[in-house]
Design goal:
The protein is α/β, with parallel strands linked by helices and 316 residues long. The protein contains twelve helices and 14 strands. Bound molecules: nicotinamide-adenine-dinucleotide (NAD) and 2-amino-3-ketobutyric acid.
C-alpha cells in the first residue's frame, strides 16, 4: 500500500474540521492538508498543512493536488440544503462543478481513493419514508438534493467508465459539538443543545413530531474512514450507501435533553425548512453498508445527549 497523502476540501466545515483532526492523528499531521474557500484557522491551521482552495476552480484544484502529492481526497466542500434553497445557482455551482473537478482529478492525476458524500436529501416525498431502501425513488425537491443525486450518478459513471475509486455515503443529519453546522435543515438538532446549555429555552424551526435520521459525529467520522479504507472487492455500491444510526422527533430530542436540563422549554415555530424536512425519510435501511463494509453505529440518543451536553458545558 502506498503512503497516504490526504487532502480535505471544505475542511473548515462541520464535518471537515473534525475529520481532518482524526485523519492527522491516523496518517501523520504533515500528510493531511486542510483546504477551504475560507482561510483555515484555529486548531486546523495549527495542527498541519493548510491552504485556501475554491473547489469550483479546476486549475487551482489540480495545482493543489500536485503541489502536495495527494493520492486521497475527502471532498467535504458543499452548500447545504437551507442555504441551497436561498442560493440555488451557487449550490449547483459548488456542489456539481466542485465534485466534477475532483472526479476529473481522480482520472487525470490517478488519485487512489476519493470520498464524495451524498445525503438523505437525495430522497424525496415519493421515497418510502420508513426503512428507506438502498435502491429506491430519488426525486428530491431541493437544489441541494438534486446535486446530491447527480453527484451519486456521476460518481458511479466515473467509477464504471474510467475505473477510478470514488465512494460515498448518504449521511443523515450530523450532530456535533466542535463546529457549528453550515446552513442545513437538520441544524436544529445541534442548535437545540447550545440553547439548552446557554439559555434553557429553544425555539425550534421544525414541528415537534418531525422525525429525521441523525448521527453523532464520532459515528460519522468512523463511517467515512471505514468506507475509505474498505476492501474494494467487498464493495458492490460506490457513491450512494445508505447510512443510519438514530432517528428521533424534535420532541423526543427535547425530552431527552430535559432529563439533564430540568425545566428546558422548547417552542415550535416551523419556517421554510419544515417543507424540506417533510420530503426526507424518517428511518433508513443501511443493510448494504453493514453487509459490504461492516458499518455499525456506536452512539444512541441517550449517550449522545449526555456527551453533547458535557462537551458544550465545558466549551461554553
Ligand atoms: P459545512 O457547510 O459545514 O461545510 C462546508 C465547507 O465548504 C465550509 O467550510 C465552506 O466554507 C466550504 N466551501 C463552500 N464553498 C466552497 C468552495 N467553493 N470551495 C471550497 N470550499 C467551499 O458542510 P458539512 O456539514 O461539513 O458537510 C460536508 C459534506 O457532508 C457535504 O457534502 C454535505 O452535503 C454532506 N452532508 C452533511 C450533513 C450534515 O448534517 N453535516 C448531512 C448530509 C450530508
Ligand atoms: C442538511 O440539512 O442540509 C444536511 C443534510 C441532511 O444533508 N444536514
Amino acid at each position: 500500500m502506498t503512503h497516504k497523502k490526504v487532502l480535505v476540501t471544505g475542511a473548515m466545515g462541520q464535518i471537515g474540521s473534525e475529520l481532518t483532526g482524526v485523519l492527522r492523528r491516523k496518517y501523520g499531521r504533515e500528510n493531511v492538508v486542510a483546504t477551504d474557500i475560507r482561510k483555515p484557522e484555529g486548531v486546523l491551521a495549527g495542527s498541519g498543512p493548510c491552504d485556501v482552495l475554491d473547489v469550483t476552480d479546476k486549475t487551482a484544484v489540480f495545482t493543489m493536488l500536485q503541489k502536495y502529492g495527494i493520492n486521497t481526497v475527502y471532498h467535504m466542500a458543499a452548500i447545504l440544503s437551507a442555504t441551497g434553497e436561498k442560493h440555488p445557482a451557487l449550490c449547483w455551482n459548488v456542489n456539481m462543478n466542485g465534485s466534477i473537478n475532483i472526479m476529473d482529478a481522480a482520472v487525470e492525476l490517478g488519485l487512489e481513493t476519493v470520498i464524495i458524500p451524498s445525503s438523505i436529501a437525495a430522497f424525496g416525498p415519493e421515497t418510502p419514508r420508513f426503512n428507506t431502501p438502498q435502491e429506491t425513488i430519488l426525486r428530491p425537491r431541493t437544489m441541494y438534493g438534486v446535486t446530491k443525486v447527480c453527484g451519486e450518478l456521476l460518481g458511479d459513471y466515473y467509477v464504471k467508465r474510467f475505473g477510478v475509486d470514488i465512494r460515498g455515503v448518504r449521511y443523515p443529519g450530523i450532530i456535533s459539538s466542535e463546529t457549528l453546522p453550515g446552513g442545513g435543515t437538520t441544524d436544529y438538532a445541534v442548535d437545540i443543545f447550545y440553547k439548552a446549555v446557554e439559555e434553557g429555552t429553544y425555539t425550534c424551526f421544525v414541528k415537534e413530531d418531525t422525525k429525521l435520521p441523525m448521527m453523532y459525529m464520532p459515528d460519522c467520522i468512523k463511517a467515512t474512514i471505514d468506507l475509505a479504507e474498505a476492501d474494494k472487492e467487498s464493495l458492490v455500491h460506490s457513491c450512494e450507501y445508505n447510512l443510519a444510526a438514530l432517528s428521533f422527533t424534535a420532541g423526543e430530542l427535547a425530552a431527552e435533553i430535559r432529563k439533564h436540563v430540568p425545566g428546558f422549554e422548547v417552542t415550535y415555530e416551523p419556517d421554510f425548512r419544515q417543507a424540506i424536512a417533510d420530503t426526507w425519510p424518517a428511518t433508513i435501511d443501511d443493510s448494504a453498508a453493514r453487509n459490504e463494509w461492516g458499518w455499525q453505529p456506536d452512539w444512541n440518543l441517550e449517550n449522545m445527549t449526555m456527551d453533547m451536553l458535557e462537551k458544550l458545558r465545558a466549551k461554553i
